Structures are given as C-alpha cells and as structure tokens.
# Entry
Amino acid sequence: MAVYLDDVSRTFGEYLLIPGLTTKECLPGNVSLQTPLVKHRTGEKSQIELNIPFVSAIMQAVSDDGLAIELARNGGLSFIFGSQPIATQAEMVRKVKKFKAGFVVSDSNLKPDNTLADVLALVKRTGHSTIGVTEDGTPNGKLLGMVTSRDYREGKDDHNTLVKEFMTPFSKLVTGQLGITLSECNNIIWDHKLNTLPIIDKNQNLQYFVFRKDYDSHHENPYELSDPVDKKLLVGAGINSRDYKDRVPALIDAGVDVLCIDSSDGYSEWQSDTLRWIKENYGDKVKVGAGNVVDAEGFNYLVEAGADFIKVGIGGGSICITREQKGIGRGQATAIIDVAKARDEYAAKTGYYVPICSDGGLVHDYHMVLALAMGADFLMMGRYFARFDESPSKRLRIGNNYVKEYWGEGSNRAQNWQRYDMGGSESLKFEEGVDSYVPYAGKMKDNLAITLGKIKSTMCSCGTITIKQLQCNAKITLVSSTSIVEGGAHDVILKEQN
Ligand code: IMP
# Structure
C-alpha cells in the first residue's frame, strides 16, 4: 500500500509569527543576518558564511555575472546559471572573480581610424560617453587616447572626422599603473580634476577606467561577500548530473567558490553519482550543494552522498508548473519544517551541520522570515531578483508599467533539458515552467534595504537578533482563512493610489 503522510502540505501564507519579548538589545542595528552556507562541525564556523541569507536562483533570467557581482557586494551569493555552454558559464564566473570595486573594464572602445559617426553610434548603444581609443579597438588593447563628449560637437563637426583627429591623445592623458589602489586613484582624480582615470599595464595596454562618479560607492558595501585573503567576490555556479566531468573542472579553473547540482527532483542516483565523483576527485576542497528535495529521506540520501548543503523545494516556484504537470511536490513550509528536523537529527547524530536552502515560492518579505524561522539557513529566489536592474533579462514597457521578462528553466525558452532530465534523450518532452513578466523594481540595493529592514524588524519583534536565535525561539502559528482576510486592509474604502 502507498504511504500516506499525516500532515497537510502547507505553504508560508498559512502561518504567522507570534511576537516574543523584545529586549532592549533587540534593535535592527544589532541584528546579524550571517548564516552558514556549507557543511561544518556543529559548534564551529562554516568555511563559507553569507552576510545576508539570500542566494539567487540558477536561472538564465536571473543569475549572470552582472547580478552576481551586485549580490555579492551586498552580502549574498549568486549561482551562475548552468543552462549554457561550459565556456560561457566559466567566463561569467571569471568576470565575477576579476571584478574590483571601482575598476571598470571599458565597454566602449574604438580605433583611431574610426569616425565621429562611429563614436555617436557607440554612445547611443552603450549610453556611456567615455570611450577608450586603443590600437585594436578592444577593451585591453594598447591605449592611444580617449574620447569624451567634451572632444566634439555633434551638431557642428563633420561626422566623417577621424577619431585620431579629435581624441585626447595618450601623451596628454593622466594614467594610473596596474596595481594602484582605489584610494590612490581617487587622489589622482582629485589632484588633476579628472572625471576618468585610465589604468594601464606596463605595456600601455588599457586595463580599467576609474570614474570620479564611483568615488563613494565602494564605501557603501559593509556586507560585501569576499574572500578574506584575496578580497575577490564570492560566486557559485549551477551544474547538472550529465556533463559534470567536463563542467566542474572548467568552473574550478575559472575560480568558482561553490557549486550546486541543479535539478527539479534531486532525490536520484544521478545526483549521488555526481556528488561522489566530485568528492573523489577534489575531496573537501570543492563545496557542492544538491537538491531539490522535500523530505527527510531525500535530505539524508544526498547528505550521505557528500552534499555540502541541501536545497529544498519542488513545485513552489513562481514560474513553476511541475505540480500541475507531474503531480509531484510539497507545500514549501511543510517541506522546510520536515527537512530542518532531519538536518538537526543528523547534526545530533554525527556532529555535522548541513545547511538547508529554501528554494522558490517566497512572495512576501515576511515569507522570508518565516522560512528562516522554520529552519532554512538561507533562501534562494528567482522572481525577487529578476525584477531588478541588475538581472540579465530585458526591461519592457507594457501599458503604463515597466516589467522585466522572467522565464522558468523548464520552459521551452530556456531549453534546460538537463534540469528536468530523467536520464533520457536531450530534449524537453513537456514544459515544467512558464515564460512570464515580473514588475520592474529598480536597483537591487534599494530593494534589499527595504526587505532586509523588514526582516530585521520582524526578528526584533520575535525577540531575536541572529538567525540561530530565530530558529530556536520563534513562535509560529497556523492561521485560518478568515484570519488571513483580517491581515490585509479591510472594511475601509481605500483611497486611489497614484
Ligand atoms: P521563485 O523565486 O518563486 O521565482 O522560484 C525560483 C525557483 O523556481 C528556482 O530556484 C528553481 O528551483 C525553480 N524553477 C526555475 N525554473 C523552473 C521551471 O521552469 N519549473 C519549475 N521550477 C523552476
């Protein structure tokens, strides 16, 4: 006979937190959101700790190098999407590792023989008015000059004029040598009243630009998630259980800090094989998460196979139709509660703590606190991050609203057959995700400030200032459908919102 579980499959919207005693030390400024990312001995620190409990989903519409840089600068971590060729994924990892705050690789470059018309077209395309003139027109070619909007008059000058005739030539440029620190750059910028300082190597090849306008930005990231030794930002990458023998070495070579096997159903021998291969070949040097699972059995199976963290969630993602298509899944809250219990039992039995990640279905900011309170160590989100400027997808205007595109990895658009693969052929037989829009929400940093502010405030109401305390002390109650209605504005006539 089939096994019937006694508990109902529930999700976050069915629960509320009951306040605990807010002591005087419970101030948002005292709250730490640090949390372990990978397996460690109980009582010891995890080798990688996030400064905020957020990671971005392993999805084409979410996690490229641009979003990864911004999220790491704000204390979280991205897993660069794996549904792309190995070389391009490794290149994205490399770009994150090469990132140095304030040092920008020039995206607008021309050769001396280009024309003013080329300059105007480039400015229009990139929106950037500073152009590096290099011998071969590449971002790292020999620097021969620079062009800014002060070098030409669009309405008066002949558009056929060659760049070399109006650029500021190298002999007149103030430059910095590779290896210079950002504060040294800023001193030169101030002393010479510059807007831009090109940084060159000993062969005069352009390496970076440092802009006056970025002067303050590197002071604004107190939570930055970087390697304590080389100061490079941390970055993760998604892998699959098919081409891992080629993909994993390439990602490690690119400098990836942590991997995650990405599958809609991770309770499989393919994941176990992948984990064992990585651990046999790299030992504990390479950290790798696995999933997704929704119960204790799945958790224990992948932990035994060597996983460093476990991702929890099937069918709850905003773009996900797995439950409708295949009839598998579990309410996200119930899944987290069950797997968190298994994690704690495993820790008590073995002395090893394996962090768990709640993946998908977090809609409101308070859902995030609930997920943490129920035992999640960190949260993976797709829809949340897809809405920001930094996500790779297109921003469009629909009616009076701006939206961004957001599509599932199981949609025909993503063609990520490895994630939904059951060991068969290289194609998707049916879709498990949709192609959609999400409301555009602006800069990640501004949104994080609000979300994290709410999380800290709720934690203080619960009388807790760390995630561990929240997990141990939170009081959680189920709510009736009638009391859910009571939770929103009700029995008033809302004024028009402009
Ligand atoms: P969201 O934060 O609710 O948008 O959920 C994001 C999560 O949905 C991802 O991290 C994946 O686990 C999952 N996911 C991504 N693409 C698909 C899909 O096409 N079908 C089902 N689940 C998906």
Observations:
- The chain is about 30% helix and 20% strand.
- The mean pLDDT is 93.
- The pocket of inosinic acid is lined by residues 57, 59, 264, 313, 317-320, 322, 359-362, 380-384, 408-411, 432-433 (CB under 6 Å).
- The two ends are 58 Å apart (CA to CA).
